Task: structure prediction
Amino acid sequence: MKKIIVAITGASGVIYAKRLLEILSQRDFEIHLTISEAGAVIIQNELDIEINLTNFQPESLIGVSTNNITYHHFSDIIAPISSGSYKTEGMAIVPCSMNTLGAITAGISNNLIQRAADVCIKERRNLVLVPRETPLSSIHLENMLKLSKLGVCILPAMPGFYHKPHTINEQVDFIVCKILDQFGIENDLIRRWE
Result:
């Protein structure tokens, strides 16, 4: 079974992570999930879901029972995903705060999210960062450029309109489709351009 890492950090847009987890939990993937403290605050603020990071149950976020999501506390720096010898397809940080993006750019590994991202870079695995910030400062742009030059996919949460969305959910699916595409995961979340 293929393994994929999903991290949620403290930026607006946790609805993208929730939907990504819903889709992946229905597929033949072993999902490794980690959530920052600020990510938990945003989940509460945006989704009205209060989660306990010490005793987190994925069902509390995605609403259904699943056995293919393994949760790791963000402070657990000896979790399997902190090692390059633990093979994964890569990692998606959805949403990715500018704090997390800056730490990754600087090679800082103060928590499991940063360490797992660092592992993906050094092992040349897929790393997809989904920043949701506007406007972007020169510091943000320089950090993104530096990571992009290292092979990191910078996938800002900028929904398109060519698929003629009618709902917010369709806009969310547009971004989640783009994330899945980066890992070669087939999906029909949106009408493709022809």
In short: The mean pLDDT is 96.
